[in-house]
């Protein structure tokens, strides 16, 4: 099932049919477009709920778990976002539709831990939605390691990645990170802090690169430092990317996706490479 997303994501694995997905939307035109696109690209049949009552009935009528929901923020009978709140209260992973990009609306959605949000006024809205769904349904195939001596930072990054359906391991220092990498050959991405006691992010990256290339493991460095030359030092140590804190969710997720997309493209081009 070949699929090429708007951002360059490539997927050619097994059919994604079988996952129960709800589309909570009252526009006939939009539901028709989404239904056709998801069936064409991903072989997914979505359940459509056109109002809040239909959403509640859909949840109550079946014991089959809802893998993912796509919801408009305003529906008949739920003009104040009740449908979105209902889904999130049930801990159902949800992608939200919003009419335009408003800072207040964006902050509200991020605070509610939605998987993603799609701007309906974008000409590529349906294609972006298809890619977001494909990523969510396949992200569990990726194992990510977070390395940070701060428990708060580890928890924050871990929760962000798990929201996107990644498998996540954490390490509080470089020594532990090396132990986890040795025991878990399926880790494809490491996100490491720069400033850590005993072994900083540079030294950790150098030790990893002595035995493991970028075709096996991508490394993103992060730091709260104001020293912009850290990125150059990190890249010269063997890192693949670098982000200065504080960063926003969309930027972080984009960098993670880009590095994993590159990893898969490299591996798929090798005769003995591993395929997702």
Give an account of the 3D structure.
With 276 residues, the chain is an alpha/beta fold. It folds into two domains: 3-138, 3-Layer(aba) Sandwich (Rossmann fold), CATH 3.40.50.2300; 142-269, Response regulator (Rossmann fold, 3-Layer(aba) Sandwich). 42% of the residues lie in helices and 19% in strands. The chain has ten helices and twelve strands. A five-stranded parallel beta sheet has the order 4-3-5-6-7, with helices on both faces. Helix 3 links the parallel strand 5 and strand 6. Helix 7 runs parallel beside helix 8 (201-209). The modification 4-aspartylphosphate is found at residue 193.
Topology overview:
Layout: E1 3-4, E2 10-11, E3 21-24, H1 28-42, E4 47-49, H2 52-61, E5 68-72, H3 82-89, E6 94-98, H4 103-111, E7 116-119, H5 125-138, E8 143-147, H6 151-163, E9 167-171, H7 174-183, E10 187-193, H8 201-209, E11 218-223, H9 230-236, E12 241-244, H10 249-269
Parallel strand pairs: 3-4, 3-5, 5-6, 6-7, 8-9, 8-10, 10-11, 11-12
Antiparallel strand pairs: 1-2
Helix pairs in contact: 1-5, 7-8
